[in-house]
Design brief:
Length: 601
Amino acid sequence: MKRAYLLVSVLFTAITGFSQNVGIGTESPKARLHVSDSSVVFSANGLALAAPGNTPVTGTGRRMMWFADKAAFRAGYASGTEWDLTSLGKYSFASGYGVTASGDFSSSTGLNNIASGMASTAIGINAQATKDFSHAYGSVVFATGNSSMALGNQSFASGDNAITLGTNIVSKANGGLVVGMYNNVDDAPDPLTAAQSDRIFQIGNGYYDLNIDDEVRKNAVTVLRNGNVGIGTNNPGSLLSFADLTGDKISLYGSGPAHYGFGIQSALLQVYTDAAAANIAFGYGSSTAFTERMRIQNSGTDGMILKGRLSLKNGTSPLDVSQTPGIWLYKPDNSAPLSFIGTETSQNVGFYGGPRGWGFTYDAINSRVGIGANNPAYILDVNGRMRIRHVTGEEPGIWLNNSTNTGTPAFIGLQNNDQVGFYGTGGAGWDLTMNVNNGALSLNGSAGNSKQLLMSNGPTSPPAWTSAANIMQTFQSGTVSLYQLTGNSVVDLSNANQTITISVPSRLLIYSRANTWKVCLAGACASKWRLELFVDGVSRKVYGIDGVRYGVENSSPGSDVTLGPEMIDVEPGIHNITFTGMNSFNDPYVTFSSVIMVIPR
């Protein structure tokens, strides 16, 4: 009995009631429960219960609640059933207004937030973390993918492991990160699995356009899982892609309007520097240890300097063999192309332009040059006239090398303004020239006399002027008259025979003339005879000659024919030229003569 009294006395001493407030360790409690100078512990043994009882309070209202059955804590205002038993996650924490932490181990702080995923967190206003290990921080942010995180204002992390940081942005891909504002949302990835085309990083640079009262969504940077990076483009097809817009693309150096960089205009890729004094070089190595192979000159007369060979190929696709590789050269005022240097065919290269087209070609297969001839048949094939001009101290012409190309034995060209000819360096000098004004030929400076001829003096001496009589001889025979050829007898036409002495190899031109007739009293009386030419006893030609009919009253000659020339080459010596006749029909009468010309050869 004493013990009970003592306990009651202690309690009344320790707990003092004042105006319905309860104080522990203080006689002036400031609240319904006021604990002074001591700790307060709410404890329960073991883990949260698998079958918890009801919460002490349900529905709306202000309260702070430690619900031991689920080891859950709530503080603030419940605007509905968010703090009832079904909305309390085990080991969860929620504070604020209308906040829900229904996932086990979840946390929710602020206004109207929901942390429904396991170990999820929602902080701010209207923030939702609905999947396991998701986190939502900010205003109207949603982390709806496993292990996702949404931060900022109106941002959505819907892909697993996705993160958003900014305003009005969405991250859909697994492991995707989006920062900035109003990013492009045209992609439709699988939020659970990873694909190479997924956008894993985006920087949104969109905005809300008040003029159209709508969002303008776009990306400054987009990175795909396959490593492709897009700047201004949402679907980069290469490791680095840019928006399909003309203008400056990359600025490498310089922040002003003029800079080093790359640009795009219609059907044109531009590489530029900031000023005309700066050039563009191509090579290998590094910036400080650079080996240059080609340079583009932005000023001066030289546009390009190339170290090494330049290879040009046909670039048409599909291949068009008519579009051969080469270089077009423009007029000095750049108004139009003037000439083309390049490949004409699979065999020729050359220059194209003007009315002749391929006016100069080189046959690279056969090593031939054509001027005005695009299919040269010789080492130099010229279609048309050539001109060789004079330079001071050198008359125009062509030097000819010897067979071993160790000397120049001859020159063809002008001796002076009046003479053109041949010059021999072996001692002949200007042995043969022509006066360009009147056509007179000169041998060693001598034009000879009127009516003289040029005669060779053999292979060891120069030619000389001589008279025609010293070169060409003519022998004329007498006339054989009133020869009647009868039967089969061979008649020597001796008056026409000639014996000739020749000192040099010559050609004989043999002419002969025959007159044939037959006197007939009545009826037809045609006649015919055979003429044979012999040189040194060898038959060289046989003729058949027809006669004509005459009445007895007509004594004029009959058929008159000229035969030849017969050309017969002979060597030096004495030569006999003889003729014979023989009746072929009706025993004709004949007269016959010969003329022989001898021409040295």
